[in-house]
Every structure is written in structure tokens, then in C-alpha cells.
Design goal:
The complex is a heterodimer of chains A (156) and B (502).
Chain A: H1 2-23, H2 37-63, H3 81-101, H4 103-118, H5 123-144
Helix pairs in contact in A: 1-2, 3-4, 4-5
Chain B: H1 2-14, H2 17-35, H3 41-52, H4 57-82, H5 93-102, H6 106-139, H7 144-161, H8 166-180, E1 183-184, E2 191-192, H9 206-228, H10 245-267, H11 272-287, H12 300-323, H13 329-340, H14 347-352, H15 354-375, H16 379-383, H17 390-409, H18 412-430, H19 436-459, H20 470-501
Antiparallel strand pairs in B: 1-2
Helix pairs in contact in B: 1-15, 2-4, 2-15, 3-4, 3-9, 3-13, 3-17, 4-5, 4-6, 4-12, 4-13, 4-15, 5-6, 5-12, 6-10, 6-12, 6-15, 7-8, 7-19, 7-20, 8-19, 9-17, 9-18, 10-11, 10-12, 11-12, 13-19, 17-18
The chains are: A mainly alpha (156), B mainly alpha (502).
Chain lengths: 156, 502
């Protein structure tokens, strides 16, 4: 099933890439190939890999005609996609407020929520780590390495 | 005689106090990265590149190389104590190493990994010293067409040898090359595939891609495991941190063989440390007088693979330094680092900057000595890292990745990119698409297109230039073989099995 989706994605991507390549304006000045030739080659390469995947899928289908319906029956192996979706969503929020709030505040809030959930119950340890890490790394970067991370609304 | 002077001179570079310090920092961080789950050598090197910006290139590269080979030492610790390879190449160690720990011989398992790593790591550096020059003199004859076919060979080998499906490996490679085409085309000045985002005009930085694909994706996987409750517990170190005479006698052979296997596999593109350690393991099992002990705590099963995956790193630096073409994911990140410091590895580097090349190579002798000290008497300190709760460690890795990505350009776009590539890396892992080929292709993509177009300009647009010389033809044939091997080998096996059965 996953392979079919990958196969479809490959075809869509190849189509989009060919289309985008065609949009590159070309001014042929002494360069016999121009900026489009190599991308076109890559588009063809993508189609070839799609063909290879199709061949692999057909071979697998012949080898094991009946689909394994019970493959994720083991509860220890079952994926918990919503955990990943939630963490990714929370990280997206972090990126959104990174510059407006500033590195230190955004990072403290981001880390506090994650540690409160994944390292439950150990409040003191979590709060100390989050605050010390955020403030310490900000200080180390701005003072010692001269790299200013986003300052945001804090005055320092 | 000239070369000999250069090599000796390299030792004076490596022994300068500042470079000794950076060697130490590198191998120390490498050990920590190796012990900790979550950040592997590729992401570790990538995260440090922005921080080391502005440093002297020789010192910076010495440090980054230290992380690369140091991580292999640390990886075995996690494999032995929690049965999870801290680094992919330690996967074989987690079989017999963990069994030894369960039998109360964790100390011996850790000791043999450190000693084996040291001996084999040194064998690898000696090999690197000996093989570097013959290869550079050959590489000096390379033109754009030769380079193009060489990169083609490296990519086909990596894409068909990593992972289970050659098709998915090729897909990952093409995807990496496509990402590399984003940005302003250097020859025509034309913007390509920037999608209207101003930040994309300089291209998508490989640092954010590597950090996303390796570090962020690992955070997603780790937090998922944690939630599911399958995260492993660490064992205590038991037994003396040394070998009995009997154990020593059983280990020395596997260490030597592993060291040589690892170096040879390392030089070849594609295979890498994991395959080297698997090959060493199967070799030891085949020639052992008591193969039934393997999988139940045979010390040979730790000594061989650990040695192999350490000499592999030195072997993998051979094509990177002499040809400028890496053969795997981590060395591709190293190449990216070289380029960011304005240093182009390859045969000319040996002529123009012998101090840098030999300083780097010779620092590895020193680094291996430091590593054996860090990983034997001081191993207890690093084991404590395993007791950091994962629920704190993984969130911190995100924050560290964010710092690293933001520090490059001070742009939020790079933060979005690490998140995007983190999700991509997580999904790719679930559907079995390897990410190492993508990274290799991304780093090599620009140079590859460049040499393709230069070759075509030389030939006036005639493709014949790609099969016009012995070198290009050989490389093309080797590329074809690496594509066909995964198809042919199962067939041959099936035929042989049929022959046996009848």
C-alpha cells in the first residue's frame, strides 16, 4: 500500500518538476546546454526510478499474492502517528513565535510543554533544565560566539 | 622524498597545542554523540558547522573529523548496555555485546570494543596514509567527464546498496539532486525552482536538510517509542574493564581481520560501516571453531564488527580526500563542511595544502589514542549520559537543532526547513526509503551538474565524451554493475538453491 502511494508521488513530482523546468527562462549564450538540460535529465531519472519501483511491486505481488492483513497486530509495534503529528504541530507553533517572542521565551515554553508531557511528574527537574538551557545557550551564543539568536520582546 | 617531508610536517601541524585541543574537543563530542541516541555523526557534524564558522579551516576540519570517528567508539557503549546501537554501524555489536553484558561481562565487552576500535582505527589511518598518494596521482588525470562518471558511480553504489529496495534508493538520490538544483544557476545566473522564496536563491543549505533528516526525524521516532513505552533501560557495567588472557587470545584475530575488512569496505563507495561490521561478523562466525556461541555472547562477535566499523571511517576518508567524492552520508556531510570553509578536497589539495591534509590525517592517530583513554578508564562518565531521561533529551535536541539552523543565516525559513525535513525523514523511515543517498546527492549535486556541463562544453555537446576514455568507461561499467548486482544476486542464489535441492 505504502509503495503505491510512493509510486503516485513519484509521478506527480516528476510532472511538477518537468513543468517547473519548462518555466525557467533560457537565454542561450555560449552555454550549449543551458540551465534546463540537467533538470530535464533528473526528471527522466525520476521516471526511471518510478519504473523500477513498479517492477519491484509486481515482483513482490507475484511472490506473495495474499496481502498481510495482520501485520500491525502487535501493540508494541503499532505506530502512534498522532504523537508525531502533535509534536510536529507544536514545533510548527514554536517556529511561528520564534522571532516575535524571541528565542529564550519561545524555547522555554516549547520545552516546558514537551517535558511536562514526556517526562511527567518531575516538575523541578523539567523547569530547571528548560530555563537554564534556554538562557544558557542564548548567553553562550550571543556573548561567546557573537551569534545573536532572535531577541524578541525581552529587553536583553 | 618530498611526500615524506609533507607527512612529517603534518605531525607538527597535528601536534600544535590548538589542534590537539580541537582534536580532543572533536573526539569528546564524538563519543558523547555516539553514546546519546538521537544525534548521529552526520547531524552532529552538520550542527557544529555554523558554530565553527570563522575558525581556521585546519582546526575546524580536525574537530569535525574527530566527531566522525569518535562517534563510532561511543556507539558501541549503547549497543552493549541497552541493546540499541547508538550509531547504525554498531548494530552487530548489540547482539553479542548485550548478551555478554547480561552474563556479567559488560566490562570485557566495553574493553574489547575500545581496544579493537583503537587498533583497527590505527590500521585504518595507516591505510589512509599509504593509499592517499597513489590515488591522488591517478586523480590528477581526471577531467570533468571522469569526475561526472565517478560521481555517478558513487551515487549508484550508495543508492542500490543502502536500504532494501534499489528503486527507493534511486528515488532518494534523484530527490537529493533535485533539491540541489534549487537556487541560482551559477553558469547562466538564472533562478531555478525558487518558488518565489527569496531565501531559496542561494539554494537549500545541506546543513538544514541533514539536521532535519537525521536529528529531527530521530526525535519524532524517539518520542513515539517513549510514548509507546518501548524505550530500553540501561544495564549497569559489570565485571572488570579488562580482558582475561583467554578473551584476549580470542579477540586479537577478529580485531586484525575486522580492521582490514573495514578499511577495504570503507574505501569502496556505498557499503559503509554497517555492511563492514556485518561482513566481519559473518566472517568470524564462519571461521570460528565454536559458531554456536555467536548470538549468545561470543567476544569475537564484538571484537570483529567494532574493529571493522572503526577502520571503515578512515577508509571512507580515502575517496573523500583524494578524489573529493564521498561514498556515503557522513562523508558527504564532511565534504559539505570542507566546501563551506572554502577548501575543495581532491588531488590538488594534496599539492596546494599538504599542511592541512596531513595535519588532518595525522591528527587521527592522536585522536585514536585520546579515544581509547576516554572510552576505557573514563567510560563510567559517559555511561551516565544514558541515564538522562529521554523525555528531556529529545526536546533539547530540537532546541539545539533550532539554534544550529537559525545560526547559519538568522532566518526562520531554515527552521521551517528542518521541521519539514524532519517529517520527511520520519515518513521515509516508515516506508523504507533510505536518506543517506539523498544527502550524498544533495552535496554532490551542484558539482555534478557543473562537471556535466563543462564536459559537454568541451565536447561541443557530444555525449561521446562520457565513453571516450578508459577511466570513464570503467566507471560507467562499475555503475552498471552496482545497479545490476542487487537484481542478479538473488537470481543466482535461487538458481543455486534449485541445483542443490534437486
Amino acid at each position: 500500500m505504502a509503495d503505491r502511494i510512493i509510486f503516485a508521488c513519484m509521478l506527480v513530482l516528476a510532472g511538477v518538476y518537468f513543468w517547473a523546468t519548462a518555466q525557467i527562462p533560457s537565454l542561450d549564450l555560449g552555454d550549449p546546454l543551458g540551465p534546463k538540460a540537467f533538470p530535464q535529465l533528473l526528471g527522466v531519472g525520476l521516471l526511471i526510478s518510478a519504473g523500477m519501483l513498479l517492477a519491484e511491486m509486481i515482483k513482490k505481488h507475484k511472490a506473495a499474492p495474499q496481502p498481510q492483513a495482520v501485520e500491525t497486530a502487535d501493540p508494541a509495534q503499532r505506530p502512534h502517528y498522532w504523537v508525531v503529528v502533535a509534536v510536529a504541530g507544536w514545533t510548527a507553533l514554536y517556529v511561528l513565535v520564534f522571532e516575535p517572542l524571541g528565542y529564550v521565551l519561545a524555547t522555554i515554553i516549547y520545552l516546558l510543554a514537551l517535558t511536562a508531557f514526556f517526562n511527567r511528574g518531575r516538575w523541578l527537574m523539567n523547569v530547571l533544565t528548560c530555563v537554564l538551557f534556554s538562557a544558557g545557550s542564548y548567553y553562550a551564543f550571543s556573548e561567546l560566539l557573537g551569534v545573536t539568536l532572535a531577541r524578541g520582546i525581552l529587553p536583553f | 622524498m618530498d611526500t615524506f617531508t609533507h607527512i612529517l610536517n603534518g605531525f607538527t601541524v597535528a601536534m600544535q597545542p590548538i589542534n590537539l585541543w580541537y582534536t580532543f574537543v572533536g573526539v569528546l563530542m564524538g563519543t558523547i554523540i555516539g553514546v546519546l541516541p538521537g544525534i548521529g555523526p552526520s547531524a552532529g557534524i552538520a550542527l557544529l558547522i555554523p558554530i565553527t564558522y570563522g575558525m581556521d579551516p585546519t582546526s575546524a576540519l580536525i574537530m569535525l573529523a574527530g566527531i566522525y570517528y569518535g562517534a563510532k567508539y561511543g556507539g558501541s557503549t549503547t549497543a552493549i548496555l541497552i541493546r540499541t546501537p547508538g550509531e547504525a554501524a554498531s548494530v552487530m555489536t548489540s547482539i553479542d555485546g548485550y548478551e555478554m553484558a547480561r552474563k556479567g561481562r559488560a566490562g570485557a565487552a566495553l574493553a574489547v570494543s575500545a581496544i579493537g576500535s583503537f587498533i583497527a582505527g590505527t590500521i585504518g589511518v595507516i591505510g589512509l596514509t599509504l593509499f592517499a598518494l597513489p590515488l591522488t596521482s591517478m586523480a590528477l588525470k581526471f577531467g570533468p567527464a571522469e569526475y561526472f562518471t565517478l560521481m555517478l558511480f558513487a551515487m549508484t553504489a550508495v543508492s542500490t546498496l543502502t536500504g532494501n529496495s534499489p528503486a527507493k534508493g534511486v528515488f532518494a538520490t534523484i530527490l537529493g539532486l533535485m533539491i540541489a538544483t534549487i537556487g541560482i544557476d551559477l553558469q547562466s545566473g538564472q533562478a531555478r525552482f525558487t518558488m518565489g522564496v527569496a531565501e531559496f536563491q542561494d539554494g537549500v543549505g545541506f546543513v538544514v536538510v541533514v539536521v532535519g533528516l537525521f536529528a529531527m526525524a530521530e526525535v519524532f521516532r524517539g518520542l513515539e517509542d517513549l510514548y509507546r513505552g518501548t524505550a530500553p533501560e540501561a544495564m549497569k557495567i559489570t565485571g572488570k574493564l579488562w580482558l582475561t588472557r583467554e578473551e584476549w587470545k580470542r579477540s586479537i584475530g577478529p580485531i586484525w581481520r575486522g580492521g582490514i575488512i573495514g578499511f577495504v569496505i570503507g574505501v569502496l563507495p556505498g557499503a559503509g560501516g554497517t555492511i563492514a561490521s556485518i561482513m566481519s561478523y559473518t566472517t568470524e562466525k564462519r571461521i570460528s571453531k565454536h559458531p554456536e556461541e555467536f548470538g549468545k555472547g561470543a567476544i569475537e562477535g564484538v571484537a570483529g564488527p567494532e574493529s571493522a566499523n572503526n577502520s571503515d571511517t578512515a577508509g571512507a576518508l580515502v575517496p573523500l580526500l583524494t578524489l573529493g567524492v564521498p561514498g556515503g552520508g557522513a562523508t558527504a556531510v564532511m565534504l559539505g563542511a570542507f566546501i563551506m570553509y572554502g577548501v575543495q578536497p581532491g588531488p590538488l589539495l594534496f599539492q596546494n595544502r599538504p599542511d592541512l591534509v596531513w595535519g588532518l590525517i595525522n591528527s587521527m592517530y592522536v585522536g585514536n589514542v585520546m579515544l581509547v583513554i576516554l572510552n576505557l578508564p573514563l567510560i563510567g562518565l559517559f555511561v551516565r549520559l544514558l541515564y538522562i531521561p529521554s523525555g528531556i533529551l529529545y526536546p533539547l535536541i530540537v532546541a539545539i537543532s533550532a539554534i544550529g539552523a537559525y545560526a547559519i543565516n538568522g532566518s526562520v525559513v531554515d527552521l521551517w526547513l528542518i521541521l519539514l525535513f524532519g517529517v520527511v525523514g520520519y515518513v521515509f523511515d516508515k516506508v523504507d526509503i533510505p536518506v543517506a543517498p539523498l544527502v550524498l546527492a544533495l552535496v554532490l549535486g551542484g558539482i555534478m551538474e557543473q562537471s556535466f556541463r563543462q564536459a559537454m562544453t568541451i565536447s561541443g555537446g557530444d555525449l561521446k565524451i562520457f565513453y571516450g576514455s578508459t577511466i570513464t568507461v570503467t566507471l560507467l561499467v562499475m555503475s552498471a554493475i552496482s545497479v545490476l548486482l542487487p537484481i542478479i544476486i538473488p537470481r543466482l542464489k535461487a538458481m543455486r538453491d534449485k541445483g542443490d535441492g534437486s
